[in-house]
Amino acid sequence: MYQEKAKILWNNRVGNQYYKIGLTCHNGYSDATPGQFIMLHFPGRMSPFLPRPFSIHSIINTGGRAAGIELLYKVVGEGTKMLSEHGKGEVVNILGPLGNGFMSSNHYKRIFIVAGGIGVAPMFFLASYLQTKGTDPFECMVFLGGRSKDDLLCADDFLHMGMKIHVTTDDGSAGDQCFVTHPLETALEMNLPDIIYACGPLDMLKCVAGIAEKHTVPCQVSMETVMACGMGACLGCAVEGKTASGNYMHVCSDGPVFDVRCLKL
User: Fold this and answer.
1) In this structure, what are the phi and psi dihedrals at residue 68, rounded to the nearest 5 degrees?
2) Nearest-10 Cα torsion for 121, 122, 123, 125
3) What are the two backbone dihedrals, phi and then psi, of residue 141, each rounded to the nearest 5 degrees?
4) pLDDT attached to residue 63
């Protein structure tokens, strides 16, 4: 991992309350895997006191090496509001890449990607990564859900990769009016994938995990939670494991990506 001062390359609004920010980074981020994250803090400021976790949305490559990272974030509180007010050339502190990312395999040919709202942030990195590993985009199906059309992100990016997309919204303002897990289960009943990757709200992940278990399909989920350190020291991001003793794991160090068979969701 690398602790460094990162210069802002851009910080652009891409939708209602959503932004993409580019940051310089150590070239060691070339080895980052989809699902890993960074902890971001504002230098010289006491508020917000704690750093914030952000999934890596993409790697900015120059000459085959990482020159920067891009984050996709939503303004939901004091920290993200402050971040949205920072501009090109300003500096933030970052620590990363942290955590364990998604595991891929050459045996995974047919792949389902499920993203709810801002949960799409690491899934774009995952889709790009799968392409570099030779995955056929026509064998990938993306299930993209949001409360409304304003919460649907990266749809064009997935389409440009050649992936099939099924869009849903809670209010029916775009795609089908239902939860994103409804078309997911319908698709599984027609043709089982080799694996399901998912990131989004906890209730969505619980449902995805249940569907995967019902159909005996491997499933990996990226958990979203509040963190104070990102390295397993504060023990504040505990999740219950699915063991006889009910042992707890920590999202920052054991995750944020988990095989659902290890979690008690």
Assistant:
1) -170, 175
2) 110
3) -120, 130
4) 86
Residue with tokens 């449902």: 207
Length reported for the chain = 265
Q: Pick from 31, 27, 33: which is nearest to 65 by CA?
A: 27
Q: Which residue has the tokens 């501009």?
A: 87
**What are the residues whose beta carbons fall under 8 Å from the beta carbon of 257, sequence distance 6 or more?**
35, 99, 100, 101, 102, 103, 220, 221, 222, 223
Q: What is the pLDDT of residue 246?
A: 61
So what's the pLDDT on residue 232?
79
- What integer pLDDT is reported at residue 243 of this predicted model? 65
Structure-block tokens of residue 151: 């919460």
In degrees, to the nearest 5, what angle opens at C-alpha 21 toward C-alphas 19 and 22? Answer: 155
- Tell the burial category of 147 from Cβ atoms under 10 Å away from its Cβ (0-12, 13-18, 19+): middle
Instruction: Name the helix (H) or strand (E) containing 30.
Output: none
For 32, the token pair is: 């980052």
User: Is the overall model pTM greater than 0.85, yes or no?
Assistant: yes
Integer Cα distance of 252 and 229 in angstroms: 8
Residue 62: both structure tokens together: 């120059």
Averaged pLDDT, groups of 10, the chain, 265 residues long: 96 95 96 96 77 95 92 94 96 96 93 97 96 92 96 95 96 96 96 97 96 97 86 82 75 94 88
The DSSP code for 216 is T
As given in the structure block, the two tokens for residue 101 are 């990312």
What are the structural domains of the chain?
Answer: 2-98 (2.40.30.10), 111-262 (3.40.50.80)
Q: In the numeric block, which tokens belong to residue 148?
A: 């409304």
Write down the pLDDT at residue 160: 95
